[in-house]
Amino acid sequence: MSDEQRNGPPPAPPPEPGDASVPEGLVSAVLNLVNTGPVLLGAYTIAELTAVDAIVDFLEARPSDEVLAEAVRSLAARQLLVAGSSEEQVQVRGDLGITVAFQRRARKVLDARTTGTEPGEPWRILLLPQPEGICLMIRIDALGVHQIGLHKLDEALRTLIDWLPGGRVAKPDPAMDADAVLTASERSALVTVTDYTAQGSAEVAGASRDLILARNDGRLHVLSRDPRDRAELVPTGAEDREDVEERLAGLLT
Prior knowledge:
Layout: H1 3-7, E1 20-21, H2 26-34, E2 39-44, H3 46-51, H4 65-77, E3 81-83, E4 90-92, H5 94-105, E5 108-115, E6 124-129, E7 134-140, E8 146-152, H6 153-163, E9 168-169, H7 178-184, E10 187-199, E11 202-216, E12 219-226, E13 229-235, H8 241-250
Parallel strand pairs: 1-4, 9-12
Antiparallel strand pairs: 2-8, 3-4, 5-6, 5-10, 6-7, 7-8, 10-11, 11-12, 12-13
Region (Disordered): 1-23
């Protein structure tokens, strides 16, 4: 057994002045719950998440100060945001506090965006893997509502794969016009995994890698960026659905 397994997960970093803090022991307690099944953490707007620093900075445009102020008032009225131990801090409570804690622990994010979705479907899914083999999953709908939950990583990946475009994998064709395939596709998706670092409460994007899926006439085209020219898309050589799933999982390693 490793030291981490004996001693529990590493504590969340201490909050910066003006940050929202989360109760001690919260992370380890929730980890035990996730091992028994998904832990659903509620739905929030981007302004509410930004107000408590619960969103990766480079993924979203920052709402206006007026919108953020209204979000703070809304959270305070619901007792999700209360005074902290000093005048410079506030404490995030309830499920939103859990979201903050696990967002801060992540150091990479999978961002999947899909076209051709149906009413009631999310158009975007974020996965923020954790060291213990679980992840924070955020489903974003057309209204910008963020449905958040904690899941085992393998289960979250299965959910993601079921949501992404499917079909019989097309044979790689070097002469294929990628732009034409994407334009004519019934459903397409861009999956980007970005590593990042934290500087205080701010996240700074690092290296990233992409996988592009496009379903056209029942065939699934699997593309990636050409390493010689990242503006160009080329077939990946994926042979079947299992190969696609392995490539998606490989983006996170």
